[in-house]
Amino acid sequence: MAALLLLPLLLLLPLLLHLWPQWRWLAADLAFTVRALRCKRTLRARALAAAAADPQSPEGGCSLAWRLAQLARQRPEHTFLVHGARRFSYAEAERQSNRAARAFLRARGWDGGPGGGGGPGGAREGERAAGSGAARAEWEGDGAAPLAPGDTVALLLPACPEFLWLWFGMAKAGLRTAFVPTALRRGPLLHCLRSCGARALVLAPEFVESLEPDLPALRAMGLHLWAAGPETHPAGISDLLAEVSAEVDEPVPGYLSAPKSVMDTCLYIFTSGTTGLPKAARISHLKVLQCQGFYQLCGARQEDVIYLALPLYHMSGSLLGVVGCLGIGATVVLKSKFSAGQFWEDCQQHGVTVFQYIGELCRYLVNQPPVLETYGLTEGNVATFNYTGQRGAVGRASWLYKHVFPFSLIRYDVTTGEPFRDTRGHCVATSPGEPGLLVAPVSQQAPFLGYAGGPELAQGKLLKDVFRPGDVFFNTGDLLVCDHQGFLRFHDRTGDTFRWKGENVATTEVAEALEALDFLQEVNVYGVTVPGHEGRAGMAALVLRPPHSLDLVQFYTHVSENLPSYAWPRFLRLQESLASTETFKQQKVRMAKEGFDPSALSDPLYILDLARGAYLSLTPARYTALLAGDLRI
C-alpha cells in the first residue's frame, strides 16, 4: 500500500523538479504583484479624487498640482528637498511653485487674480489685469508673442531647486515644459527647440556666455528669453526669478492645468542622442501619474531619504526621482553633479537610505551596498523591477508580473536588424537563455505617444502583427535574456551588438570579461568597420586603474581563455577617461566613427596579430598592412 502511495509522487517528481526553479520564487512574485496592484489602486483613487475636486481648488488640477497641494496639506513641515545647505519643506515647495505659476500666468495674460476668480481678491485682480498688459507689452517688445495655454517653455538649467519650482509652476499654469540637455549648443540646441515647438527658453546665468553665439538664432525663432538669476544679461533677456519673487504665493485654480485627457502631452524629454540628433519624447499626464508609483513599487517609504545625482532633464532624474519622491511623500537630496568622493559623506550627513543611479554611475563607487535594479525607457511603455534582489538581474518574467505589466522577448536577427518572423509572418518568442528583443503591447493603459515632429521619427519603434494579425507592440531596441528561473538580465542594445566572423558579439559580455582584469578601471566595447572585412571587428577603449600599466601579454591570455575567438577585441585604444553622455551612457557610436587610424588619433592604439598570438602597437606601417590584407585579424 505504501508503495502504491509513493508511486504517483515518484512519477510527479521529474515535473516538480522541472517547475521548482520557477515556483520557488512564487512568494516573491505574489508579494510584488500585490504591491503593484495596491499602487495602481492608490494612483487611481488619487486621480478620481482630483477629477471630483472643485475646479477652483489646486487639488482639481494636473497630477503635479494636486499631489503638491495634498502633500503641503498632509505633511507641510516634512522636508521635501535638500540641496547643499538649503532645505525646503513640502509647504515651501508648494509656495515657491505657486509664485512661479503666477509669473507664467502673467506672461499668459491671465486675469484671475490670487484667488482665481471673484470674491475677496478683487483689488488684486485689478492689479493683475494691469500687469497683464505690461507683460504683453514686454513680450511684444522682444518680438515674442505672449504665451497661450498649452504652449511649451524650454528649461536649460542644471539640477537645482529653481528647476523644480519653475517646472511645477509651468504645470500649474497649464504650460508644457521641455527639458533641454544642458550640454547642447548651436545646431543641436536649435533642433531641440524647434522640434518641441518651444515659445520661450529659461536658461541658467552661467550658460549665457556660451550661448551668446546662439542668441541671434534664438531671437529669430521668436523665443522669449529668460535667465534664472539676477546677473547682468544681454539685451532681451529678463530675470525670471525676480518676476517669480514678486508674485504672491497663493494657490492657482486647478482648472488652469487640468488636462482634457490623460493622454495629452504635458512634457517633452529628449532622448540622449547617442545615434543622432535628440528626439523629443512626448510624456503624457498618464505617464507622470504612473511615475508617482515608482518608489512605491521599489518598496521605498515616506520616511526614506533619496539621493539623486542625476540630470533633471533625464527621465530617471525628473520623473522617477522627483515625481517618484512626491508619490510617497519622501525626502530627496539633490546634487547638481555626482561626486564619488563626496557620495559617502553626503549619505552619512543626510541619512540617505535610497540611491538612484543609471548607466555607469554605480561603477564609480566601490563596495556599494546591494541595490534594486530596474529597467525602463523615457518614451517606453514597459518597466521591470528586480524585486527579489537577484544579483545581476533587472527583473523577473513571472506570469504574475507579465499579467500586470505585459511584455515579451522575441528573436532578433542582428544581420538584418529586424525581428525574426516565421512562415506566417509572426514573431517568435525566445527560449530560456536566448537573447531576445524586448517588446511590449501598446494599449490605452500602456501607450506610446511617439516624438514631437514628423511620424518618421518613430519609425521602427512600433512592430505590427507580432503574435497575431493587427496587434501593435513597442520596440525597446534592447536585448534581454530570460534564464530558466525567469530572471531577466540586460544583454545589449540592438545597435551595440555586432556581427563578426559570422557570429553575434554582445558588447556587454566582452566588457564584463575585460573588467575582470585588475589593471583595468573602465572598458567601452564597440564594433568598427574594417576595409576588406564583413561585419564589424571588436574594439575596446580602456582606462587603466592607477598605478597599473597595460599588460598586453596578460590581456591576450585573459581574452583567449575567457572569450570565444570571434569576440576577442581586434583593436585596443588606451584613454585617460572614457567619453560618456551626461546621463552616464558610454559613447559607443562616436567612438566607432573615430575608428582606429593611428594618424587620426593621438591615443595609444594596439592591434591583435593572430599569426603572432599577441597584441602589438598599431603603427602606421601595420595600419597600411591591414588595409592591404597583409595583416590577419
Report on this model:
- Keywords: Fatty acid metabolism, Ligase, Lipid metabolism, Lipid transport, Signal, Transport.
- Residues 147-369 form the AMP-dependent synthetase/ligase domain.
- It is an enzyme of class 6 (ligase).
- This is long-chain-fatty-acid--CoA ligase.
- It catalyses: a very long-chain fatty acid + ATP + CoA = a very long-chain fatty acyl-CoA + AMP + diphosphate; tetracosanoate + ATP + CoA = tetracosanoyl-CoA + AMP + diphosphate.
- This protein is an alpha/beta fold and 633 residues long.
- It is 34% helix and 20% strand.
- The strands form seven sheets. Strands 7-6-5-3-4-8-9 form a seven-stranded mixed β-sheet, sandwiched between helices. Strands 15, 16, 19, 20, 21 and 22 form a six-stranded antiparallel β-sheet that branches. A five-stranded mixed β-sheet has the order 2-1-11-10-12.
- Helix 17 (552-562) links the parallel strand 26 and strand 27 (571-574).
- The model is unreliable at 114-133 (pLDDT under 50).
